[in-house]
Amino acid sequence: MSTLRLRSAILSVLTPMLLVMGVVASGTATAAPTATAPAAFTPAQLVGPYASDVPPTGTYIPVLDGFAELRRAHPSIIASNLQKVKAINNSATRAQQADAIAVNYDDRLVSLSDALGDRLGTVFRQLLAAGKLPKVDALAGGDTARAGLPLGTTLLEKEYYDNPRPFVVAPTSIKRYDKPGGHLYAELVNNGSYPSGHTNMAYWKGALLAYWLPELGPQIIARAGEIGRSRIVLGVHYPLDVMGGRIMGTDIAAARLADPRFAQLIDQAGAQLRDQLRRSVGMSLTDFIARDTPYLTTQQAVSEHRNLMTYGFPVVSPGQVNGIPASAAALLRSRFPGLTDGQRLDILRRTAIRTGYPLDRSGANGGWLRIDLAAAYAVTP
User: What pLDDT, in 10s, does the model give residues 218-227?
Assistant: First the structure.
């Protein structure tokens, strides 16, 4: 199916999807807030529509199309892509296997919450399950979360690239890990691999969670990287799929935050989250985080995430020229509220990896691969 036809198919169901979301939300959105029922978004707020609902070019293919170039000009990278899956999958520890299985079935927001620390992560999950974070849940909870819709899925892109998954290409070389009675491989056997949808969601949800809790930004972004790696552990994705998912997820989050009207929803959800967390822990979040057992230290988070950005691939385009996209500056607004967008963009430039790694692109569609949000959040204001 052509890109245009796929785009038309998705856009044809856009309005009904959003209207359904509004109807589903209306049961609680119009209720008066109480001590046990914090206010939810109204259906009108969720439906919008918003400028960031559709990317400027209609799809995310322009920023992801470094994959087509690799297929055409760098067969050794494609071959290495499969070898890296085999190595990561075959050498996975029991803990990595268990985490990968849990990540497969859990909402990415729940998986990301591990990064908040032993006690704060537990509090967050309890509040989410109790319905006390309705705005956070509406924007970032589940597969139909509003911040990722309508084109925040990877369905169109997967269909476009039609890349078979590792366990399909090399069935005798990939070990399968699943829960008893699980169905993850049966569900994915006919589904394209590039880009990784789990990683896409992990990064845009992670970018929002880090935006809401900038004190833990490096840890949250590192956890997003771990979620991406978990897909390789299962043998259902390649490193390039995960890198592409990061590109797409970062673009989505930046677009939402750079959209003034949608950013208002994000800010409201963040205020609700911080208020509910403070009420639950009975002290300032800064003090509570300082007393909690961290998921990773800031240094560990930055180091781990940097290692997961390129998976050991070599630079393939040493003379490549691009810049960090201007819209990405919005990702750091809560971390550096006193800076201008130009200054925030400079932080992203200074903490970025070099140009030319696989999937990085020249010109206006490039630069997304280079963004290291964990390192940027770790910069001292």
Answer: 999 999 999 9
Residues 314-365: pLDDT tens digits?
Answer: 999 999 999 999 999 999 999 999 999 999 999 999 999 999 999 999 999 9
What was the pLDDT predicted at 57? 84
Share the mean pLDDT of the chain.
Answer: 91
Domain region containing 292: 60-377
- Which amino acid is it at 286? T
Q: Write the CATH number for 277.
A: 1.20.144.10
Task: Reply yes or no: is the peptide bond before residue 166 cis, omega within 30 of 0.
Answer: no
Kindly report the backbone phi and psi dihedral angles of residue 48, in degrees, each rounded to the nearest multiple of 5, phi listed first. Answer: 75, -115
On whether residue 330 sits in a domain, the answer given is yes
Give the pLDDT score at 58. Answer: 84
4 falls within a domain: no
Compute the average pLDDT of residues 232-238. 98
pTM above the 0.85 mark? yes
Separation in Å, CA 80 to CA 71, 96, 199:
12, 22, 20
- Asked whether residue 44 is assigned to any structural domain, the reply reads no
> Is 17 inside any structural domain?
no
How many domains does the chain contain in total?
1
